[in-house]
Write a structure and sequence with these properties.
Layout: E1 3-6, E2 13-16, H1 35-38, E3 40-46, H2 52-61, E4 65-67, H3 75-83, E5 94-98, H4 109-119, E6 122-128, H5 132-141
Parallel strand pairs: 3-5, 3-6, 4-5
Antiparallel strand pairs: 1-2
Length: about 150
């Protein structure tokens, strides 16, 4: 089926052979934006102790829906749930997910990001880091051993 679409960046019309209900289509047949056009995903990751939880609290205060310690593979069904059906009516257009780089699931992140890009989802990554001295000071202040410490200072 030949369909008329508009390039969001240039405003130019282009013909495609994609079906009208294609999962990668980001506009309705009458060129109205879909929920994916207004939807944003922010991935918060970085060193343990660098402030991921604080960053998550801040973006939550700014109106983002925040999920902590999410396996990357669950991003796709979560985005799908929030942008289609009754989930798109929730009014949530910004999703922040805190992902731990130490997670065994972290290797799947590249494939998930590629899939979200194929869907047209605006995705950003916030990677937080801190010096070793700052990380040690933070963990000593909470009297909790650093997860990578293994008995050594």
């Amino acid at each position: 089926m030949n369909q008329q679409t508009t390039n969001r960046d240039t405003g130019e019309a282009a013909a495609t052979n994609a079906p009208a209900n294609s999962a990668t289509s980001t506009s309705t047949p009458d060129n109205q934006p879909t929920p994916l056009d207004a939807f944003e995903v922010l991935l918060i990751t970085g060193m343990s102790g660098a402030g991921r939880s604080h960053a998550a609290d801040c973006v939550e205060d700014m109106g983002w829906y925040v999920v902590d310690n999410l396996p990357p593979k669950l991003l796709i069904p979560l985005v799908d749930m929030m942008t289609t059906g009754s989930g798109s009516e929730s009014g949530v257009h910004k999703l922040a997910a805190v992902i731990d780089v130490r997670s065994s699931y972290f290797d799947e992140l590249a494939a998930v990001l590629g899939h979200l890009d194929d869907l047209g989802v605006k995705t950003r990554i916030l990677f937080l880091d801190a010096s070793n001295e700052v990380l040690i000071k933070r963990y000593e202040s909470v009297r909790r051993p650093h997860p990578l410490q293994h008995g050594n200072r």
